[in-house]
Specification:
about 1700 residues; 83 helices; about 55% helix; transcription regulation; Mediator of RNA polymerase II transcription subunit 23; transcription
Length: about 1700
């Protein structure tokens, strides 16, 4: 230790480093300095004899002595420890140049004594520790305490460099110079170099050069040394290298932004070192860093495999950011920095060989660009791009644009069919997260009308009369994503504009002859008569239903506070006026001329209390700004035309009259608003209408005829009054309906009384303003339907009135249809009460004593009234409403427990109609609700369970299984009925596989459900013979046996025997009149109402069984007739259903059809009822019938109907005998009767006779009773579903059957083509009338019905009003009509598809393509047609197109994966010739390497054809290049520019078909892709790109396959795609860095969807194996897809 102290003392004691001469330190440390001071370096053989200069130690021998003493000191301890102490002493301040010189000289001699050797087991010099200690002195930040930092930096680094260069690598390794040490040194040097200022002096430059020299030693290979080493076989004399990317990984303090992308230091101009490194501001660091990064890759190509893509992307982003900070005018150093950055990007992008096998893909850079240049919108980035990078960025932008066109269909303006759309259709392209990078393109796409958006969704929903609930649900889902209800308002304004334009186009604007009385002022002294007032009514008054519908929607949105009156007024104003207050020129797109319809719509809002009494009142009290805008919308010329309409053209006058009490200074209003002068000329008419209404209607409101059968003139006067005064008309009409004069009527039963009032026609109710409709509904609901205690009357002697007037109910449903949006709240409240009533029934059933009724009489009466209203008048409304799928939840307990048989009859019929009306498979989710308290839906009724199964079958066959798992379907089926349901083979063959497997698969849950015990003839015989009590009670009415018999039949297991026993006894006595009727009634009452249908099925099965007595069939018929009609023990509809329930063997079916034939065709009972019903001329347009009640009472007087087996003791609904037990309180009969209840079961009969192939019986039944189908609530839907569900049936395609089925429709209520009507009504007409022109008209008509802009007005005035049609949505009804127009033809599906494709692909004599909406109409219809028959020709055509189209079967334009300056000559020629249009399709794959370098000579043309597939003439290439972009262009652009092509058109059609199809279609798509690949039909890159364009827009839907139990998933599709990529790439065999335009787009596409490749390890492994089997360099380019 003493020796060590001596060494330290002699080396460092009393050193004064004060310069004694005026010499620049930089000069002292120049090259000559190093050349003369080798004692400061590692010792070499030539170091002897050098001169030394030292102030403390004067001779070389003294350093040798000190070194020797130090070595001796180390014998007692390790040299590392001793050296550590020495270095600590060295670092003690002051740290001077002399002190450093002494240390280095000492180390020089020490290394002579203790050399660094590679000999093993020999003590080695601790070089790594020495470097570490020296590193602590290395800094480029001179301070007052450390003024010689630069000199010491140079000296120490020079010493370290000499050690590294003079020592063998192995020796260095033995001395501890390992990779971590090297990394530590490099990191320290790098960090210090960044501290140098941007502008340096000479010594700072030398410091930088010294640091870079050391970094070069570690990071750059000595190629000359390597070559010599390779020639001699020896290793180069350098240490093992580290790559610069290792430094990046290990140095997050400096390069964290490369690793994570978010650790970006904030720029600070005053502190350059704070710049993200490397900073292009410091060109030395920039150049050095990029040089090392480039060299690391070029020195070790395998390094690319270790560089993560994320890090490479961050590096490129950093380079691009830095380049973007350069000035426009570049210096030489800045140019060199720019070139280095470009070279690095090219290397990372294209790889060292320029073949594209780099670290990142073009797609990765495209995705990263917004992080560099900001948000991309409207074709530009938020930040400008440096001009030197514009070409590169533009090329990437083109690639992104191409990718956008792959991911977006050629046209995605698919109309939303709100009442039929599947869930995915509500999520347009703009809502998909994978499309964020195409936001700018999407906005442009939507703006141009080539894609849907939120506004278009709302527009379609408004056009299709969607419910307010749908708007709320969609708006709520959008609000979560940051959107607001302004989109609804925009859509509302768009609809208003379209509707007004539609009416204007059909209006007559010629000037009319004006009457002299029109402008006469009103004289209060005169008595105004009706003939004194002439209301102007246009010829196109039928179109006003569009305005009434729009007004209802607008009123509802404003009431619900979606938007305000002020907003709407401003929007209207902006429709008409420009910003400068001038009207828009006529014909301006999206604008309109002034129209009084706008004022009429605003007038509807005046009657909203919070607007009329707040907003408008305050405006009149203030500056009248809003009123001024309203007046400016007035068109004074409109009332002078032949198309004038008083309600519309006097709307401004009505508005002024409505607010007259709020208008200040009315006398001067003309001065304040001069434009109002023209309107006030007609104000006298308004006063006349008010006076006339008061005298003629208001004062006579209790007259039941005053509002009957009004002419259109009178209707308009009342409607005008509703606009003039708040609530007056509504109050008057209510008094008219419910007068205070007591005149009582009955509803069937004498105790079912109501207060007689007048009737109101639907025309009057339609033309009332929205507020009057709403007010009248409120009054009726509050007084008649709001309370379950019964209606409330004002009449003094109304205590014996128990029921609501049928005329009031007529008004209710007419108003609900006329104003569905504004009345939605009332509908909700009714269903809420229905649900509460249902739960009350359950609660009472579980807790009530036996003798009590479940509900009070008034509650039962309310329930019966509402159920009749819903079942007979509201089904059309409910069918396509948002309530439809959940309706069974409102009556689920009532179906099991309700004990009032008359009400249950209506309830059961309603349940059947609910099931048969379902139009969406989401009802399955509703039935599978896990929170329901009722495990078995229809435990008591086999009929209801079978009906539900049939509905599920129909839904799945017509709408597809969607994303509903088969397991869920089976779960629903098993929860429908408590016993196993069996089906015949004839019926099962029409079941879809998911349902059929439940009933046929021996492993399904169905086989775990028990069979219901059957009632056998032997059992009944035994009961009768062994127990005479049955006969004594039923035939003789023995009181002694009553209790025992009633107890026996009150047990559920015994109830199924009652009806077969009665039947057997009747056959034994040959008559049903032998029974003791009161006893039979008592026994029948033991069976709950909910189980009667099931036991009727038991009876029919008993009658049809083999064991049943086979006596005289006529006796059987007569007994059955008596039980149904005379005694009314069983229901006719139950018997009919039991006969055609769909199960049983062939013998049972044959007998069943015999009984069915008798009941419907031979028995006089039902026929007489039908004849009477028909003779009364009930109107199928029930809304137009004001005397329905009177007709129904006439029918029931002749054929009364009872529900509690009391027919024997009743006459005309009055008891003629005492009833024990007493009958339940009678309920009012508003609509129900056996003829109408039969119609839903008529559907079942038709289905079964087709399934069992009974065409003759079906034809006779249709001929006899087909006219009843006009009373069907949804005949069009039924016939459509029948044709779809049973399309494979030969019976259905028999012309005489098909035509009879078609004639069930009332063609006057639908818009069918004349050819279709002729075919259906003329037996002699065949397929010859259906040619290509017919099918074209079908699709064009459907497209018109889908277009919100065209508004789908009535084709003829005879059609029903839109809101009263079977389907209120013109789009949905148009789809059903078009479906049937296709299906009714005898034309084979192949021919139909040929006509379709000829139209879509403009084949034949067509020269231009059809509009996109027509393509979508075709796609929508194809997706709805039977998939097997109509879709296969589409796949065949697609196969033919892909394999045969001349433009798809040729490769696209070749290009090289090199920098732009190496683009070959012939590509330059094509660019020059086609600059005008190929600028949108050209793909460049790299960026210029040198900004200021000489141009590189192009390769010879022979290189172009070194790949066989590229051998084509320039003319052929030019032709392909011209057509190629239009294949993937947007469809509408092609149509408008006459550049349509078959491939593009088919792609548009294909995406429409898939968009509107269920997920089931993807199985067929996968099979198509497999067939395409296995047939080796794919040969070119354009074909492959076409496949990508097919799949791109639908991949978001294929992901849902994973949520189903589909055989195939999206993984299968992705695997097929990658096999195709391999197949095409191998066939093309591109070499030497060649690629093609299409191939590059395919690669971008694959990278865009790569997230789907790694969703599971198994899929990733499969994809990886496929990629590895591809040719190089494709395999390398795609390898990172699954990393």
């Amino acid at each position: 230790m003493e020796a060590l102290r001596t060494v330290i003392a002699r080396l460092f004691s009393d050193i004064q480093d004060v310069p004694t001469e005026d010499v620049d330190p930089a000069d002292k440390l120049g090259n000559s300095y190093y050349g003369q001071r080798l004692h400061l370096l590692h010792p070499t053989g030539g170091a002897h004899g050098l001169k030394y200069q030292s102030g403390l130690i004067s001779s070389r021998s003294e350093y040798a002595i000190l070194a020797s003493e130090f070595v001796r000191a180390c014998q007692t301890g390790s040299m590392a420890e001793q050296l550590k102490i020495l270095m600590i002493k060295y670092r003690e301040p002051p740290l001077t140049v002399v002190k450093t010189s002494h240390l280095l000289t000492f180390l020089h001699h020490l290394l002579i004594l203790v050399p660094i050797t590679s000999t093993p087991n020999v003590p080695n010099f601790p070089l790594s520790q020495l470097f570490e200690d020296l590193g602590m002195t290395l800094t480029l930040r001179p301070t007052q305490q450390f003024p010689f930092a630069y000199q010491i930096w140079i000296m120490n680094l020079q010493f370290m460099l000499s050690c590294i260069k003079e020592v063998a690598p192995q020796a260095l390794y033995n001395a501890g110079i390992t990779t971590p040490v090297v990394l530590g040194i490099i990191k320290h040097i790098l960090l210090e170099l960044t501290r140098l200022p941007i502008e340096v002096n000479s010594i700072q430059q030398k410091c930088f050069d010294m640091g870079k020299d050391l970094l070069d030693t570690f990071l750059l290979k000595d190629t000359q040394s390597e070559r010599s080493s390779a020639s001699t076989g020896s290793k180069p004399a350098v240490i093992p290298k580290v790559s610069y990317y290792d430094i990046i990984f290990s140095f997050p303090e400096l390069y964290g932004h490369f690793l994570h992308g978010s650790m970006m230091p904030i720029r600070n101009e005053t502190a350059p070192s704070a710049y993200p490194q490397p900073s292009i501001v410091n060109y030395r660091i920039w150049q050095a860093t990029l040089q090392y990064m480039i060299a690391s890759i070029r020195q070790d190509v395998k390094l690319l495999d270790r560089i993560p893509t994320l890090m490479a992307i961050n590096i490129i982003k950093h380079v691009l950011r830095e380049i973007n900070t350069l000035p426009a005018d570049l210096s030489k150093s800045e140019s060199r920095c720019l070139n280095s950055g470009k070279e690095l990007i090219n290397l990372l992008l294209l790889g060292p060989h320029g073949d594209g096998a780099g670290v990142v893909s073009h797609y990765d850079i495209i995705v990263a660009l917004p992080d560099v240049y900001g948000h991309f919108l409207r074709g530009t980035f938020a930040q400008s791009v440096h001009w030197t990078m514009e070409k590169f960025i533009n090329e990437l932008g083109k690639r992104r644009r191409h990718l956008a066109f792959l991911m977006m269909p050629p046209d995605a303006s698919w109309p939303l069919i709100s009442q039929m759309s599947r869930r995915h259709e509500y999520n347009d392209l703009t809502t998909r997260t994978s499309y964020h990078m195409f936001e700018g393109d999407l906005i442009e796409f939507v703006k141009e009308g080539n894609s849907t958006g939120i506004e278009t969704h709302f527009r379609d929903m408004l056009f299709q009369r969607a419910s307010m609930d749908e708007f709320r649900q969609l708006t709520k889902s959008l609000t979560i994503t940051g959107l607001d209800t302004s989109q609804v308002r925009k859509a509302m304004i768009t609809k208003i504009r379209d509707v007004i334009r539609c009416i204007q186009q059909n209006s007559n604007f010629e000037r009319r002859q004006e009457s002299s009385k029109e402008r006469e002022p009103y004289n209060p002294a005169t008595n105004v008569r009706g003939e004194d007032i002439t209301m102007l009514i246009p010829d196109n008054i039928d179109l006003w239903e569009l305005m009434m519908e729009t007004a209802d929607q607008l009123y509802s949105f404003v009431t619900a506070e979606f938007f305000t009156y002020e907003d709407i007024l401003q929007d209207f104003y902006d429709l008409v006026y420009q910003y400068d207050g001038k009207p828009y020129p006529i014909g301006t797109k999206h604008q309109m001329m002034k129209d009084n319809s706008l004022i009429w719509l605003l007038l509807q809002l005046f009657h909203i209390e919070k607007i009329g009494s707040s907003v408008i009142q305050k405006d009149f009290e203030g500056d009248e700004r809003l009123f001024d805008k309203l007046v400016r919308l007035y068109n004074e010329e409109q009332i002078l035309t032949k198309g004038a309409f008083s309600l519309r053209d006097l709307a401004l006058q009505c508005a002024i009259n409505h607010q007259q009490v709020n208008i200040k200074d009315r006398t001067n209003i003309k001065q304040r608003h001069p434009r109002v002068t023209a309107a006030l000329q007609y104000a006298g008419l308004c006063y006349q209408v008010q006076a006339y209404f008061s005298n003629h209607y208001y004062s006579k409101a209790t007259d039941p005829t005053v509002f009957c059968n009004l002419s259109m003139q009178e209707v308009m006067k009342v409607a005008m009054e509703s606009q003039l005064r708040q609530n007056l008309v509504a109050n008057t009409l209510y008094v008219y309906l419910v007068p205070n004069k007591v005149e009582i009527g009955t509803l069937g039963y004498p105790k079912a009384t109501f207060l007689k009032g007048g009737t109101l026609g639907y025309k009057l109710l339609d033309f009332l303003n929205v507020s009057a409709k709403h007010r009248l509904l409120q009054l009726i609901y509050k007084m008649m339907l709001d309370t379950e205690a019964g209606p409330r009357y004002q009449a003094a002697s109304s205590s014996n009135i128990t029921c609501v007037s049928p005329h009031v109910l007529d008004v209710v449903y007419k108003l609900l249809y006329s104003a569905p949006c504004s009345a939605e709240l009332m509908i909700k409240e009714i269903f809420d009460k229905l649900r509460r009533c249902d739960k009350l029934i359950k609660t009472r059933y579980e807790s009530k004593p036996e003798a009590e009724s479940l509900l009070p009489d008034h509650t039962v009466r309310w329930l019966h009234t509402i159920l009749q209203l819903l079942n007979h008048r509201f089904l059309r409304f409910l069918k396509h409403s948002s309530l439809s799928s959940g309706l069974l939840h409102y009556i689920r307990y009532s179906l099991s427990y309700l004990d009032h048989r008359q009400v249950y009859q209506v309830l059961e019929s309603f349940a059947v109609n609910i099931m048969r009306m379902q139009s969406d498979a989401k009802v399955l989710r509703s039935l599978d609700d896990p929170n329901r308290e009722k495990p078995i839906w229809f435990a008591e009724s086999e009929m209801l369970a079978r009906t539900m199964v049939s509905s599920i079958v129909r839904l799945i066959k017509t709408r597809g299984q969607a994303d509903i798992r088969t397991e869920q379907i089976h779960r629903v089926l098993s929860n429908l009925y408590e016993y196993r349901i069996e089906w015949s083979e004839e019926t099962l063959k029409f079941f879809p596989p998911a349902v059929r497997s439940f009933y046929t698969d021996p492993h399904s849950n169905n086989h775990n459900i028990p069979l219901r015990p059957q009632v056998t003839y032997a059992k009944i015989q035994q009961m009768i013979q062994t127990n005479k009590a049955y006969m004594a009670f039923l035939l003789q009415g023995s009181n002694e046996k009553e209790r025992a018999i009633k107890h026996f039949f009150s047990i559920l297991e015994n109830q199924s025997s009652l009806l077969p026993m009665i039947w057997t006894l009747a056959l034994m006595r040959m008559s049903t009149d032998v029974f003791h009727m009161p006893s039979v009634r008592k026994a029948m009452l033991c069976i709950p109402a909910s189980r009667i249908a099931t036991h009727t099925i038991d009876l029919v099965d008993f009658i049809l069984s083999k064991e049943a007595p086979q006596g005289d069939i006529q006796v059987n018929y007569s007994c059955l007739d008596a039980m149904i009609w005379k005694h009314q023990w069983i229901s006719f509809t139950h018997v009919v259903f039991a006969l055609v329930k769909g199960s049983g063997n062939a013998e049972r079916s044959e007998k069943a059809f015999q009984y069915l034939e008798y009941l419907l065709l031979k028995s006089p009972e039902f026929s007489r009822r039908v004849e009477t019903f028909t003779s009364l001329q009930f109107s199928s347009k029930y809304w137009a019938e004001d005397n329905h009640h009177e007709k129904l009472m006439t029918y029931l007087a002749q054929f009364p109907e009872y529900s509690e087996f009391e027919a024997y003791g009743m006459k005309d609904f009055e008891q003629t005998q005492h009833m024990d037990p007493p009958t339940s309180p009678p309920m009012p009969i508003y609509f129900t009767n056996v003829v109408l209840r039969f119609i839903p079961f008529f559907d079942v009969i038709i289905n079964r006779l087709i399934e069992y192939e009974q065409p003759d019986l079906l034809a006779r039944i249709l001929d006899t009773h087909g006219h009843l189908f006009q009373y069907h609530h949804y005949p069009l839907s039924f016939i459509c579903n029948l044709f779809l569900d049973h399309y494979s049936s030969p019976t259905l395609h028999e012309p005489y059957i098909k035509k009879r089925l078609l004639r069930l429709l009332d063609f006057t209520q639908y818009e069918f083509l004349p050819e279709a009507i002729t075919y259906a009504t003329d037996e002699m007409v065949g397929a010859e009338i259906f040619g290509a022109r017919y099918f074209e008209l079908v699709f064009h008509k459907l497209a018109d019905n889908l277009s919100p802009q065209k508004c789908a007005p009535k084709a003829t005035p005879n059609l029903p009003e839109r809101h009263f049609r079977e389907i209120g949505s013109p789009a949905v009804q148009g789809i059903h009509v078009a479906l049937l127009e296709v299906l009714l033809t005898p034309t084979p599906p192949e021919t139909v598809c040929k006509y379709i494709l000829d139209l879509a692909l403009f084949r034949g004599d067509r020269h231009i393509g059809v509009q996109a909406l027509t393509i979508h109409a075709i796609g929508l219809l194809i997706s709805a047609l039977p998939i097997e028959e109509y879709l296969q020709p589409i796949w065949d055509e697609l196969m033919s197109l892909i394999t045969g189209d001349q433009y798809l079967t040729e490769i696209s334009e070749p290009c090289r994966l090199v920098s732009l300056q190496r683009v070959i000559a012939w590509i330059r020629l094509i660019v020059y010739m086609m600059l005008t249009f190929l600028s949108t399709c050209k793909i460049r794959c790299g960026i210029p390497q040198n900004l200021d370098s000489e141009s590189v000579q192009p390769q010879p043309l022979s290189d172009v054809t070194n790949t066989a597939i590229l051998k084509n003439s320039i003319s052929v290439r030019l032709s392909k290049a011209m057509v190629f972009p239009y294949i993937f262009n947007d469809y509408t652009f092609n149509v408008h520019n006459y550049s349509t092509n078959a491939a593009n058109s088919f792609l548009t059609l294909f995406h429409s078909v898939l968009h509107y199809s269920s997920l089931d279609i993807f199985d067929q798509l996968l099979e198509f892709l497999r067939r395409l690949r296995k047939d080796h039909s794919l040969k070119t890159d354009v074909q492959l790109l076409y496949i990508c364009a097919m799949l791109g827009p639908i991949l978001h839907r294929t992901e849902k396959l994973n949520n189903t139990d589909a055989v195939h998933t999206d993984a299968d599709i992705l695997i097929e795609l990658m096999h195709m990529v391999k197949q095409v790439s191998i066939r093309m065999d591109m070499k030497d860095g060649w690629t093609t335009q299409a191939q590059e787009q395919v690669f971008d596409f694959l990278h865009h969807i790569r997230a789907q490749f790694v969703k599971s390890p198994e899929l990733a492994a499969q994809i990886s194996d496929i990629i590895k089997s591809m040719n190089a360099p494709i395999a390398q380019r795609l390898s990172r897809l699954v990393m």
